[in-house]
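A student in our group prepared the protein record below, which I am reviewing. Here is the record exactly as it was handed to me.
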Amino acid sequence: MDYYQQIPFHQFPQQEPAVDYRQQGQFFPGGGGGFNQQINRLERQIERLDRRMDQLERRIDRIERRLGFRPDVYHQEGY
């Protein structure tokens, strides 16, 4: 997700040197390094949590089928 790394709009090209701050591990001038690493770590954590939620939803579906629930009734979109 690259949109976190955009340079802020108030820095117009005629005012700022042509530097890609992403190469320096920053997403705006004056910020310390480590922002990209933190964002990447959080994105990986979100992906892990998404996979875990999918696992748990599949487990719930299996248990509901075993108990005789009808998944089409209980798992409609927007419930």
